[in-house]
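ok, trying the design again with the full structure, not the truncated one.
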């Protein structure tokens, strides 16, 4: 088989399309024939490098495909089943896992970061990392769904405890996680304010239900939010941009509001006016991926048509470097998906 791998950290040029031996299926796992694998911002960070990554590494966290072989100890799955991958890795034994908070696991990891990923012809997967692909969506759409929707759902539902009627500000609605957040907030009956960097992306956000759109390059986010909410602000701020928007995000936050963040695309350093934080009884929280039950809940919403994967375009896996450049230039709305050559 072939796989998208890195042997060193750096720019898109370090991505290679390597010939490898097809992995064998162990008794407790399944062998997945990958039909599509999406790119997340995590892939860009892994490629650039941070501590703890062992090289060489097959890239990719999300995928959809067909089960090619089932291990002798595995039940509930059969060859030919169409599936999608839940990218979280956890121990299943610690106090968090036992309470259904697998993403809090002390050994939590993500496929394609803490071990080989999905951008390849075949991948060996634990059965607990599988979900059934709805027949109504394509493999490309299925690969666009897991990580970003699981992240957005956990941020809004598990962490921020979203309630119907609240004002929700979504930063970077053109991204995979941002476009997922717009849909989830609308599903819960909220008023959604969304930012993006050009008119095409703003229109896409409106198409998914955004009630107010803000050009985050040419408008002051907090001023538009305060004006739109008649001075109240956002009950929930959905952050993942980082330094570039943090100050405006905090200034957008309402009395008793909750800011939840999962990323720092533009930088990891940010300040907080502590007096405002305690006087307005605001909450700032972090969030990573999601628990196993959240994935099940999301698949039910996907099956019923309440949520829609947002596919921007596809590239062959052999052109992974070009796909990374496309994302780094901010051209996409939603997800970029790689298809096996």
């Amino acid at each position: 088989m072939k796989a998208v791998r890195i042997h060193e950290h750096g720019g898109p040029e370090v991505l290679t399309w390597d010939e490898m031996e097809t992995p064998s299926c162990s008794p407790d796992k399944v062998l997945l024939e990958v039909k599509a694998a999406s790119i997340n911002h995590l892939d860009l960070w892994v490629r650039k490098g941070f501590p703890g990554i062992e090289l060489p590494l097959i890239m990719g966290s999300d995928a959809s495909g067909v089960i090619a072989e089932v291990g002798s100890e595995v039940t509930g799955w059969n060859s030919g089943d169409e599936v999608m991958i839940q990218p979280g890795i956890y121990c299943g034994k610690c106090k968090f896992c036992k309470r259904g908070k697998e993403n809090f696991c002390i050994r939590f990891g993500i496929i394609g970061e803490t071990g080989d990923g999905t951008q390849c012809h075949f991948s060996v997967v634990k059965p607990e990392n599988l979900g059934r692909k709805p027949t109504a969506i394509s493999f490309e759409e299925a690969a666009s769904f897991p990580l970003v929707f699981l992240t957005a759902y956990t941020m809004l539902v598990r962490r921020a405890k979203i309630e119907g009627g609240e004002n929700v500000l979504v930063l970077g609605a053109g991204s995979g996680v941002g476009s997922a957040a717009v849909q989830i907030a609308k599903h819960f009956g909220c008023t959604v304010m969304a930012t993006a960097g050009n008119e095409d992306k703003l229109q896409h956000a409106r198409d998914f239900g955004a009630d107010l759109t803000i050009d985050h390059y040419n408008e002051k986010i907090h001023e538009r939010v305060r004006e739109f909410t008649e001075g109240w602000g956002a009950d929930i701020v959905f952050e993942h941009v980082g330094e570039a928007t943090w100050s405006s995000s905090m200034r957008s936050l309402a009395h008793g509001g909750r800011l939840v963040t999962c990323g720092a695309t533009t930088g990891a350093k940010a300040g907080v006016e502590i007096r405002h934080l305690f006087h307005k009884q605001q909450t700032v929280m972090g969030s990573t991926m999601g628990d196993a039950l959240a994935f099940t809940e999301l698949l039910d919403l996907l099956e019923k048509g309440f949520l829609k994967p947002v596919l921007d375009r596809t590239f062959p896996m052999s052109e992974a470097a070009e796909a990374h450049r496309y994302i780094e230039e901010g051209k996409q709305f939603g997800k970029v998906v790689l298809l096996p050559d």
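Keeping the full-length input from now on. The mean pLDDT is 95.
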